[in-house]
Design goal:
Elements: H1 8-42, H2 44-80, H3 84-117, H4 126-140, H5 143-158, H6 163-187, H7 189-225, H8 235-241
Helix pairs in contact: 1-2, 1-6, 2-3, 2-4, 2-5, 3-4, 3-5, 4-7, 5-6, 5-7, 6-7
């Protein structure tokens, strides 16, 4: 009978973890809106090039999304089982898998960019095809940082620190906005192609140390639960977050 009662603490914890996960996509999308505005100012041909390029890369992004979803479940299961060493080992394997796939995807887009562009534009649009291929190559060159973003961000979420994902999403948003008003005016469409890679790299610079900070915080907590150490003050962790 006791299991029929609502567990408000559990539901509150799920909302605490789940709401930031949904919010981060909204925050990241804001940066994309600013970038799209900059592309619109370059002309209709570049708008068409980016639109076609995004459709193609979205197909290649599915692997990274799947890898990230896997890390969310993996992190949650192993933190719940108090097996932090498995968390670190799994992260290493995921980063390796993501990096191998990133190289594979870059090779395909580098060699087949113009052919893939023909799925959306006519063969007579040679300049447009060249810009689509340029977008695919320049962005896919940085798929390894993207793989790291998905591995670290989703793992941190699974470990119970989904609020950090909001900060990472905010960093991506700010990076795209800065690129919109600095790099795009200087480099034109090349700047558009590099805006997302810059956002991924900036997010990595935050997420990688954030993971190790979270890892050490949980390690101290579990040691305290086992009576092997006194529970450390987490003020250093929250100082890092903010």
């Amino acid at each position: 009978k006791e299991e029929r009662k609502a567990d408000w603490r559990c539901m509150g914890l799920l909302l605490y973890m789940g709401l930031p996960m949904g919010l981060q996509y909204s925050i990241t999308a804001i940066g994309a809106v600013f970038l799209q505005t900059a592309v619109n100012g370059l002309g209709s041909m570049y708008v068409a090039a980016m639109t076609s390029g995004v459709r193609i890369v979205c197909f290649f992004f599915t692997m990274f999304d799947a890898l990230g979803s896997t890390m969310t479940t993996y992190g949650g299961q192993n933190v719940g089982a108090r097996k932090l060493e498995r968390v670190k080992k799994g992260l290493g394997c995921a980063c390796l898998i993501g990096s191998i796939y990133a190289i594979f995807a870059f090779a395909i887009l580098y060699l087949s960019g113009p052919a893939l562009a023909l799925l959306f534009v006519d063969a007579s649009e040679t300049e447009l095809i060249a810009n689509i291929a340029k977008y695919l190559v320049l962005e896919s060159m940085f798929y390894i940082p993207l793989a790291l973003v998905d591995c670290f961000r989703y793992l941190i979420q699974g470990m119970g620190y989904s609020v950090l994902a909001v900060f990472a999403g905010g960093i991506e948003m700010l990076a795209r906005i800065v690129a919109t008003y600095t790099i795009v005016p200087l480099l034109g469409f090349t700047g558009v192609c590099l805006a997302s890679p810059i956002a991924w790299i900036m997010a990595d610079l935050y997420l990688i140390p954030a993971f190790f900070c979270v890892y050490k915080s949980l390690q101290r907590k579990f040691e305290a639960e086992n009576g092997n150490a006194v529970l450390a003050d987490d003020s250093g962790f929250w100082l890092f977050v903010f």
